[in-house]
Amino acid sequence: MTDLLDFVSLSLLPSWCWRVAADWLRNGDSPSLVSRRLIAACAEGAKSDAADVTSAAAQAIRRADAASIAAIPWSAASYPVALAAITDPPPVLWTRGHVDALSVPSVAIVGSRAASPYGLAVAGQLAADLAARGLAIVSGLARGVDSAAHRGALSAGGVTIAVLGSGVDVVYPPEHASLASEIDATGTVISELVPGTRPLQWFFPMRNRIISGLSRAVVVIEAGEKSGSLITARCALDQGRDVLAVPGNILTGRNRGAHALLRDGAKIVESADDILEELGLTTVPGASAVGTEGGLLATPGVAADPVLGCLVPGEASDLDEIAERSGVKTPRLLPRLFELELQGLVRRAGGGRFVRIDRTC
């Protein structure tokens, strides 16, 4: 894609630039123009210049190609729509494994790195049950709850997505390299950081907005008062996603963060059915795939659907436009658009937009 170099260049700039870039791109400015403007702004008083940034971007693309790592710029139709809609989407997603996994409706499961046996068991069971019913499980490949969630999804033959705070070719923690390889077989490992990037402390809070941005809901298990999982929960609330929490032992202190979420109105989770009910999804026991017989079922009444009705065949519309025309708020709009896509009634266009397919409904 001709825009890839521009988007990779944007990804190498300070993260504050990404929100500005998203605003300009949504207003119709070209990636090349946006890249030049922001590189010039960041280069003032710095030793680097546009040539340095472009050279580093080209080097990152070459490294990715050599390692069979796919780069998905924000403008690509394969870029996850839910993530494209957040205020500061990553300019590029670097992926290994099956990129198609990013189009599967997903739920994030996050929690303590030092989880109890109870927390690990709950994470694994919830992930397995949701994956068996066709949802992808998103988490951060960390020790504890994250890895238990990934393994639970894999045990059910489902799809799971790992979001790293390093390049996708630099797995952290190192002992999860084999787990990352297992995820590649049916899901995907992704990062906003160029290949070769080492894990640094401040990268992990940044990646939490991606975990929530990809997901329709975030489930928190065993989060302490200062848990990074609470950052993911705050990101989810800012992005209009549902936040749910699993209750736990009140004596250990490891559940205070999750219990605080419950006091603030998060839905309590005791089983996968609680999550599906909150999302308004219907399932059939034994479901194993999305959009197939026995999988997640789209809601009825397509012909009178306000979302479908406000879309013009062949004309791409972003989420704000669709929400304004349909009267459906964003947290409920994305799930409905995903269902219409599964039915073949709409398709995704670049930049987080949707197009109605011209057919009789």
Question: Which features characterize this protein?
Answer:
single chain, three-stranded antiparallel sheet, Arc Repressor Mutant, subunit A, 12 strands, globular, 361 residues, alpha/beta, Rossmann fold
What do these coordinates show?
The protein is built from 15 helices and twelve strands. With 361 residues, it is an alpha/beta fold. It has three domains: 4-97, no CATH class; 99-279, Rossmann fold; 302-356, Arc Repressor Mutant, subunit A. Strands 1-2-6-5-4-3-7-8-9 form a nine-stranded mixed beta sheet, with helices on both faces. Strands 10-12-11 form a three-stranded antiparallel beta sheet. Strand 8 (242-246), helix 11 and strand 9 form a beta-alpha-beta unit. Helix 9 crosses helix 10 (228-238). The longest helix is centred in the first third of the chain and has 17 residues, at 50-66. Residues 283-303 have low confidence and may be disordered.
Write the topology of this structure:
Elements: H1 4-11, H2 16-26, H3 31-43, H4 50-66, E1 70-73, H5 81-84, E2 92-97, E3 106-111, H6 117-132, E4 136-139, H7 145-155, E5 160-163, H8 177-186, E6 188-191, H9 203-213, E7 217-221, H10 228-238, E8 242-246, H11 256-263, E9 267-268, H12 272-279, H13 306-309, E10 317-318, H14 319-326, H15 330-342, E11 346-349, E12 353-356
Parallel strand pairs: 3-4, 3-7, 4-5, 5-6, 7-8, 8-9
Antiparallel strand pairs: 1-2, 2-6, 10-12, 11-12
